[in-house]
# Entry
Amino acid sequence: MPQSPESSNTTIKFADDPIIIGNIIKDDESPYREEVKLLTEWCAANNLSPNVSKIKELIIDFRKGGRTHTPLNIGGTLVERVSRFKFLGVHLAENLTWTINTSHLVRKAQQHFLRRLRRVNMPQQLLCNFYRSTVESNLTGCITVWYGSATSAERKALQRVVKTAQHIIATTLPPIRDIYDKRCLRKAVNISSDPTHPSHPLFQPLPSGKR
# Structure
């Protein structure tokens, strides 16, 4: 895929699901629109045809007074502008809140079959394994991205799912907060030890060099 020299843009590609992030500076949208143009031309040169009906544009703008943003056009078709969309399992909203994402996770986690499995006398260890693979994995998907900005009410809603599972399985399960802390620490260690990671410069050692 093409890479624009503009530092204000970031292109993320996961399988066949790319996303372009444009940081609009001083109301100059030209670098962002040029990035979209380059991607469109690259697709055409490689016999690929973007399905514009599935492409969405999400604008995050916290400036007061509201601004009018020119619609994005690809191949003569206007790209739909949305207030939220789902990317790699995470629901992103234009106001950068996580209410929709958390509600979705809680509803999905509550659809498990722990109670039914308990009724048929499944061993506790198997119940724990089932919880870790189907419930906890859903509740903590990409947790390092959103949990830190979740509200107290949203965190409590997530933890209530864990408490319910604890009651059914009759054992202690790791709190969501502990999982979040552990994964953040692991992520920080990985980034700080990888000089090629884009966020590596953010982790500078203290003057003592010990940490």
